[in-house]
Amino acid sequence: MSELTKILHVEDEADIREIAQMALELIGGLDVCLVGSGAAALEALDSFQPQLVLTDVQMPGMTGPETLAAIRARPGYAEMPGIYMTAKIMESEREALLGPRDIGVIAKPFDPMTLASDIRALWQAAGL
């Protein structure tokens, strides 16, 4: 297993991006690239080279699942692990959302004090 250090966070709501940035960088000690859309995620991908994509599910333009599919279609990113963040967290929706390289779902609102450790726990549980 490798240590998780770099996360690409895709979230269209600026206030959630800001809280997540503080939670992941200041509390979690992670290197985070924050973007506001799926298109911006694709632009940041090669220069940032994340180990994991943390994405909102419902966004204008490209949804979270569409964003992850577009990332995984890029050369070298086919196995990119993803975690979804969503306010819709019913068990039936969670199971329908997760594909083979998706390692979990984090409910919104999330706890900023535990967000980084929650993500690391999903990373470790997936054997990454």
Give a quick set of tags describing it:
20% strand; 5-stranded parallel sheet; 5 helices; alpha/beta
Short note summarizing the structure:
The protein is α/β, with parallel strands linked by helices and 128 residues long. The chain has helices spanning 14-27, 38-48, 64-72, 91-97, 115-125, and strands spanning 6-10, 31-35, 52-56, 82-86, 102-107.
Describe the protein in words.
The protein is an alpha/beta fold and 128 residues long. It is built from five helices and five strands, in the order βαβαβαβαβα. It has helices spanning 14-27, 38-48, 64-72, 91-97, 115-125, and strands at residues 6-10, 31-35, 52-56, 82-86, 102-107. A five-stranded parallel sheet has the order 2-1-3-4-5, with helices on both faces. Strand 3, helix 3 and strand 4 (82-86) form a beta-alpha-beta unit. The longest helix has 14 residues, at 14-27. The chain is globular and about 35 Å long. The N and C termini lie close together (5 Å).
How many extended strands?
Answer: 5
Q: Tell me, what's the shape?
A: globular
**Share of β-strand residues:** 15-25%
Query: Share of helix among residues?
Result: 40-55%
Structural class: alpha/beta
User: Number of DSSP helices?
Assistant: 5
Question: What profile does the largest beta sheet have?
Answer: 5 strands, parallel
Rg, Cα atoms, Å:
13 Å
Q: Strand arrangement, largest sheet?
A: 2-1-3-4-5
Task: Report the mean per-residue pLDDT as an integer.
Answer: 94
Distance between termini?
Answer: 5 Å
Q: Could you give the order of the helices and strands? A: EHEHEHEHEH
- As residue ranges, the low-confidence spans are none
